[in-house]
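Sharing a chain and its predicted structure for anyone who wants a worked example. Both blocks are below, sequence first, tokens second.
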Amino acid sequence: MKIFLASALLTGFGSGFFNIEEPATNIDYQQNSTSTTVTGTDFLGGTLGGYFSVSQDWQSVGKIGLRASVAGTNPNSYFLVEFYSGPSLDLVGVYEGTTESLPASGSLKDIELSLILQGSGNVSDIRGMQFTWAGEGYPINFSMHSLVDMSKANPQITSYKLEPAGFSIKWTGTGNVPVDVQRSTNLSTGVWLTIATGVTVREYLDTSTPAGRAFYRVVVP
């Protein structure tokens, strides 16, 4: 069973969304269609910069989150993220975060980024970003998947189980905000069937599961 995270997505770090500018410093990276992965063992840390394919307008964004995962044992690496705006790339802000909360299983999780330095750049025209891994004697194997607005309902599925009465899923990150539960039997078609609306109890039991495989997601209408 495949599990999806649904949230207020801002932009991704796949090759169609984020363009890496070389050279990176003291850091290796790989990029595919869905993410950018940075790896390194240098205790001095390293940096990786690039620009977004589409300018970002974050005037209404409350809390910026970085959706990410780690590979293997997590040594709690500290990192900084800087955002820049306009053609002259004026600094919008410097944010900090850690990989401490990320599970070693490689599962995706949203990290809230904390503002530590406010710049004078235009938050309605964000074009560039620089990621800095602090090092401090620790390695890093960190995959950046997307940026999200964590101030809005951000459902994250926490468990799923096939039970005698059907298939159950539970999630967090929505409080009392009503959400919809959707199901698909074929991801390649892009067709999702809404099987429940206005759910506020953060769990749902699908009593009409289809034969074969099924995929579920929780979305904010």
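Comments welcome. The mean pLDDT is 86.
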